Amino acid sequence: DAKTTQPTSMDCAEGRAANLPCNHSTISGNEYVYWYRQIHSQGPQYIIHGLKNNETNEMASLIITEDRKSSTLILPHATLRDTAVYYCIVRVVRSSNTGKLIFGQGTTLQVKP
Amino acid sequence: DAGITQSPRHKVTETGTPVTLRCHQTENHRYMYWYRQDPGHGLRLIHYSYGVKDTDKGEVSDGYSVSRSKTEDFLLTLESATSSQTSVYFCATSVQGVSYEQYFGPGTRLTVT
């Protein structure tokens, strides 16, 4: 599985877009990019995932570069409740999967008033 | 979110005593997972289950055993608790292993004195 690199921490002003980068330069063609977040003292929460195309759901947008070596998670209008640790995970998705997630250290996003 | 509960939510126990943590889900998800979370280590997979009576080891399985006699319940047992097992334990489920979209429980904080 490809290794991911994320900044340790980031700040964002409330109401502004939060752009969280992830580098996965060794990603292979059949690996998906997943994003999770963990708000303090809670269990992790799935946000979004993608393979090649940009994806959007009610929580966030995922922008994957054309060479797939990096991606950006975008929270369009960050609120104080979005303060959390954000994890970028790259995994192969196939029928024999056991679904084991491997979490790195993630990015601590602090949304400030 | 899948209805996932964990019990107990908090527990303090003494070194050498057996401890069992319970994860219960109401969504009929096939896959279930136990993770532990420690400062500086992030989330690490302990054991997982891909069906009733079907379990396998994760990356930090030493000192832990699991059982799954029903789809809805996944038990994690520390046969003889040690101080190094002081941690926050999270249970997760997924509909199928093919997807890495997992739903996490609220966690159990275990302290071994």
Q: How would you characterize this protein structure?
A:
- The complex is a heterodimer of chains A (113) and B (113).
- Chain A is mostly beta strands.
- Chain A contains no helices and 9 strands.
- In chain A, the strands form 2 sheets. Chain A has a 5-stranded mixed sheet, with no helix packed on it.
- Chain B has 113 residues and is an all-beta fold.
- Helices cover 0% and strands 58% of the residues of chain B.
- Chain B contains no helices and 11 strands.
- Chain B has strands at residues 4-7, 10-13, 19-25, 31-38, 42-51, 54-57, 64-70, 73-78, 87-94, 103-104, 108-112.
- In chain B, a hairpin with a 2-residue loop joins β5 (42-51) and β6.
- The interface between A and B is medium-sized, with 26 and 28 residues.
Share in helix of chain B? under 10%
Average of the residue pLDDT scores of chain A: 91
Query: Which two chains share the most extensive interface?
Result: A-B, 26 and 28 residues
Beta percentage of chain B is over 45%
Number of helices of chain B: 0
Report on the biggest sheet of chain A.
5 strands, mixed
Order of helices and strands of chain A: EEEEEEEEE
Rg from Cα of chain A: 14 Å
Number of strand elements of chain B:
11
> Which structural class do the helices and strands of chain B define?
mainly beta
Label the structural class of chain A.
mainly beta
End-to-end distance of chain B: 34 Å
Q: What is the molecular shape of chain B?
A: globular
Kindly report the oligomeric state of this protein. Answer: heterodimer
C-alpha geometry of chain A: globular
Q: How many extended strands of chain A?
A: 9
Give me the number of helical elements of chain A: 0
Bin the strand percentage of chain A.
over 45%
